[in-house]
């Protein structure tokens, strides 16, 4: 009731800042396990914060449903150019919700329900997603971070796939994305021992792009997201598609795919605007077309 009263007061004021606050409150009110907020000078970055503090942001079905819905809304929002996904300073996500999984006692339970089928929303998102990781990023949390396009980590972050200690294996890409990120030997060591690696080790191995002090990692991720969001959303999406698709192809096939997308950019107004602005020594005015 208190929140509803505040929403009504903000609506009655009618100022731009009040309406922005109203939008933030209204959006966040839709979700039980995450917080969402538009960020940036142009309000063109969506910050999604996992919010199950008592469970160290363990990834339960309802949280993943909230996350999927938020990403779908971000995809539909023409103003949003990039997404930052974060947790708390203590934990990005300490793993999947073991209590929830423990109730699934048979192969048919998990197979017939196609358990984890909804976990690919981050990987499917056409807009760039940056993970801002502090604290624990383990099991499903590490897999969730790897679904993002860029990972920034706080200095005290820890990454790992400890499923082996629970009598199971990673099930949301841990054995596959980790191998592609850090190589077979390091990935095999991590999944077979359950050992964690530090943020510094993760950066050295290629899992993480940059490491920052814990209180700066979200801010740095937002800066990068704002820069990405300032470019043509059409061209950004094509660039992301080129990287992700090419990653699964042979080099010759990937180069061919890249060249065709490059050629396709010449059918866009934003390519023409970008090159014209360069020649005229001015900032481009992209229209996402």
Automatic annotation (TrEMBL):
GO biological process: fatty acid beta-oxidation
GO molecular function: enoyl-CoA hydratase activity
EC number, as in UniProt: 4.2.1.17
GO cellular component, as recorded: mitochondrion
Pfam annotation, one family: ECH_1
Domain of life assignment: Eukaryota
Record keywords: Fatty acid metabolism, Lipid metabolism, Lyase
Listed Gene3D superfamilies: 2-enoyl-CoA Hydratase, Chain A, domain 1, Lyase 2-enoyl-coa Hydratase, Chain A, domain 2
Cited SUPFAM superfamilies: ClpP/crotonase
InterPro entries in alphabetical order: ClpP/crotonase-like_dom_sf, Enoyl-CoA_hyd/isom_CS, Enoyl-CoA_hydra/iso, Enoyl-CoA_hydra_C
Stored PANTHER family: ENOYL-COA HYDRATASE, MITOCHONDRIAL (PTHR11941:SF54), ENOYL-COA HYDRATASE-RELATED (PTHR11941)
NCBIfam families referenced in this protein's UniProt entry, alphabetically: PRK05862.1
Family designation: Belongs to the enoyl-CoA hydratase/isomerase family.
Protein name per the record: Probable enoyl-CoA hydratase, mitochondrial
Record organism: Biomphalaria pfeifferi
């Amino acid at each position: 009731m208190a929140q509803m009263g505040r929403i009504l007061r903000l609506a009655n004021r009618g100022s731009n800042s009040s309406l922005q606050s109203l939008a933030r409150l209204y959006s966040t009110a839709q979700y039980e396990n995450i917080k969402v907020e538009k960020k940036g000078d142009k309000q063109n970055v969506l910050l999604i914060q996992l919010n199950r503090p008592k469970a160290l942001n363990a990834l339960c079905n309802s949280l993943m449903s909230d996350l999927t819905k938020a990403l779908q809304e971000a995809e539909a929002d023409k103003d949003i150019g990039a997404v930052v996904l974060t947790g708390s300073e203590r934990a990005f996500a300490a793993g999947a919700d073991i209590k929830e999984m423990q109730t699934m006692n048979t192969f048919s339970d998990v197979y017939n329900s196609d358990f984890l089928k909804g976990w690919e929303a981050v990987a499917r998102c056409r807009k760039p997603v940056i993970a801002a990781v502090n604290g624990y990023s383990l099991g499903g949390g590490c897999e969730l971070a790897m679904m993002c396009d860029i990972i920034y980590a706080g200095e005290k972050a820890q990454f790992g796939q400890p499923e082996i200690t629970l009598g199971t294996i990673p099930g949301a890409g841990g054995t596959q994305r980790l191998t592609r990120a850090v190589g077979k030997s390091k990935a095999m060591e991590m999944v077979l021992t359950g050992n964690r690696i530090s943020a510094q080790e993760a950066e050295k191995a290629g899992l993480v792009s940059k490491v920052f002090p814990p209180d700066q990692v979200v801010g740095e991720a937002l800066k990068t997201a704002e820069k990405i969001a300032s470019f043509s959303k059409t061209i950004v999406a094509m660039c992301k598609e080129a990287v992700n698709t090419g990653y699964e192809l042979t080099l010759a096939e990937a180069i061919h795919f890249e060249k065709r997308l490059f050629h396709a950019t010449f059918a866009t107004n934003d390519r023409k605007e970008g090159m014209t602005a360069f020649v005229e020594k001015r900032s481009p005015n992209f229209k996402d077309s």
